[in-house]
Specification:
The chain is mainly alpha-helical. It is 64% helix and 11% strand. The chain is built from six helices and three strands, in the order αααβααββα. It has helices spanning 3-8, 22-30, 33-44, 49-56, 61-73, 95-131, and strands spanning 47-48, 77-82, 88-93. Strands 1-3-2 form a three-stranded antiparallel beta sheet. The chain is elongated and about 65 Å long.
Length: 132
Amino acid sequence: MAVSSVVSGTTSKYDTGEQMCPHRLVLEHVTSRWGVLVLIELLERPYRFSELRRAIGRVSEKMLTQTLQTLERDGLIHRDAQPVIPPRVDYSLTDLGREAAEQVLGLALWTKERMGEVQKARDEYDARKSGS
């Protein structure tokens, strides 16, 4: 099976891929801007909502809430609401979430290690385009 068909969920290489298959949606959730950061942060330890928001930075409360709900629905995050006053909610990774987070972390580390090569390629591309 072709790699593109695994990601797109299609059997034809000429399919437009507009249909969102369940596994493609999960991939989108895991690799979204905030999904990546949430998963990587939760690899360290469980977090309360406000701690997680501070750790990630620049994420709105609404966006973080939506991201956490999506990842919880996918079975990647566990939400533990304590019946205390004031309310306490902790977020942690499930076993499935830990697997996904480790994969995402690998990609993040690769990106960090290869950023010099990426920047060089960008500079060369930009130079070619500006010279045209």
